[in-house]
Amino acid sequence: KQMTVRDALNSALDEEMSADSKVFLMGEEVGEYQGAYKITKGLLEKYGPERVLDTPITEAGFTGIGVGAAYYGLKPVVEFMTFNFSMQAIDHIINSAAKSNYMSAGQISVPIVFRGPNGAAAGVGAQHSHCYASWYGSCPGLKVLAPYSAEDARGLLKAAIRDPDPVVFLENELLYGESFPVSAEVLDSSFCLPIGKAKIEREGKDVTITAFSKMVGFALKAAEILEKEGISAEVINLRSIRPLDRPTINASVRKTNRLVTVEEGFPQHGVGAEICTSVIEESFGYLDAPVERIAGADVPMPYAANLERLAVPHVEDIVRAAKRACHRSVPLAAAA
Amino acid sequence: DTTATLTIETSLPFTAHNCEPPSRSVTTSPSELLSFFRTMALMRRMEIAADSLYKAKLIRGFCHLYDGQEAVAVGMEAGTTKKDCIITAYRDHCTFLGRGGTLLEIYAELMGRRDGCSKGKGGSMHFYKKDSGFYGGHGIVGAQVPLGCGLAFGQKYLKDESVTFALYGDGAANQGQLFEALNIAALWDLPAILVCENNHYGMGTAEWRAAKSPAYYKRGDYVPGLKVDGMDVLAVKQACKFAKEHALKNGPLILEMDTYRYHGHSMSDPGSTYRTRDEISGVRQERDPIERVRKLLLSHDIATEKELKDTEKEVRKEVDEAIAKAKDSPMPDPSDLFSNVYVKGYGVEAFGVDRKEVRVTLP
């Protein structure tokens, strides 16, 4: 059976709302409009305006209200129309949500989910195309998840809602309409994925490629191309940016001895940088080539189609980097 | 009879915006007045002792004292129950005490000790007492107002028939997020009461230098407001009762408490560069909240001068004993560096400064 990421998210919300009356949704256009991207379609009708709340376009205010409701013991799911707008509310995500359990020595827990599309969309320019994975991923107290497939979307969103800590849930607009095969297990209402565990999407022995969100699809396509050229790539779908599944990444690199990290975000201080560090710390002796990093270009997102194309990773970039990593196994002196 | 009903007129009338003000006649009793006196005297003594501890370098970092503003914390407790929630900013010691927190928890927290209300991990600005509805203790100016409206959302969602008092200063009164939250609170009829503790200075900036309209009780426009003499504990009590009833029926309300802080903004501020010493001593002589209750107790023959002096001696002793105990409280265990980062850490590894030296598994 096939399911779109949109339906996966929608069904996850529906099931968790049905299972727990403390779960409610709030955000811009989540109710009567059915969601700017239709993720919350039908939920207002089913659960009523007490549990599906349209907010004004005032992120600082409604995010703070969501966090306060979580202090009181409710389980809010706060939608940002896109994560770019979460910048208006980042103080509440970091200072009010992430730090409260620690500052209060466990008195004030914050069971809340912040969700919405993150990263580059198409043709929307710099202020609407920014990946916040590394920003939120750097902050202790937060959990940061980034689903790729319908299975990820269902399992991780359900896990996020059930989790007692604040979770930043980074979706991708361009994946909403994509369909993925789903098993009966994934469709069961009890289905849930573990937080902090990566998934090996494809096994391989020559090079490890780490990716999250939309870039997992690109990495898988790159792996197919590489296979035709005799390179066996292992693709890791991170799923969880924080906690980061360092053991899975390092085990893979110890097997393949090569690593390519892929992300859409800016390269500096990015998710790839943290993965690279972890591998150098834990598995330095296993590396047969320098770590390769594919990331968004180090510029604000341009609008023009040709420039935009140059600013985000493509399959061929991943293929090129993987080959570079593999060919470096030839001793440099011999190559010269 | 200490429980006999007494009716006392507030010293100033309430000024209302978009609502009918409550009566100036406040019902109280001799025992309530005595407890007001005692609690306010305790708060006063507690803050002055904190000042000394700070100067003795036993308290670190930021420390914001509440002396002068005691009538707000005490009057608010008299007009509410522990089912109602309170959330405030960083000047939170007395609010915590009012909610039932202990002196030991306060001093131990201020000194970063294990017996502190946040086990030494929060510090002066981060006191909490969730079991009696106190949700902190927030260090970011204005952020506690949306959070308080969120608590009120929770109360309404769970049909708890209780309200939230979100306290903020005249400095925070100009924050954009306050208006965002108030708009939503009004749209959704949340039982939220925004309490502006107007001590007339946002740090060193006089209210008129920061606000085009310093009439904070009117700043909600479509939201009703009430200006209250925040140096009169009975007026505060009356206003809070009124606000609670109003909020449960009609949604949010702004209470502006006209109050005054004797200390500077924080310990680095002598508090005398942006206001005159005459202004401070004038408030002490004419409006002091404790002296006002002392006069009431004397004029109604509820207590003698000596009895009140004895009370002050008692609270002084209580404070000294708590400080001694707090000093004996151990520092937090180093392992507490990693506790409470998450409720559920999933056994993930976390790292210390040198990750080859310190790595732990989060519970």
Automatic annotation (TrEMBL), chain B:
Named from the GO MF annotations, one term is: pyruvate dehydrogenase (acetyl-transferring) activity
Q: Which reaction does it catalyse?
A: N(6)-[(R)-lipoyl]-L-lysyl-[protein] + pyruvate + H(+) = N(6)-[(R)-S(8)-acetyldihydrolipoyl]-L-lysyl-[protein] + CO2
Q: Which residues form the signal peptide?
A: none
Main enzyme class: oxidoreductase
Keywords of the record: Oxidoreductase, Pyruvate, Thiamine pyrophosphate
Listed CDD domains? TPP_E1_PDC_ADC_BCADC (cd02000)
Q: Does the keyword Oxidoreductase apply?
A: yes
The Dehydrogenase E1 component domain covers 39-334
Its quaternary structure?
A: Tetramer of 2 alpha and 2 beta subunits.
- This protein is called Pyruvate dehydrogenase E1 component subunit alpha
Say which species the protein is native to.
Pisum sativum
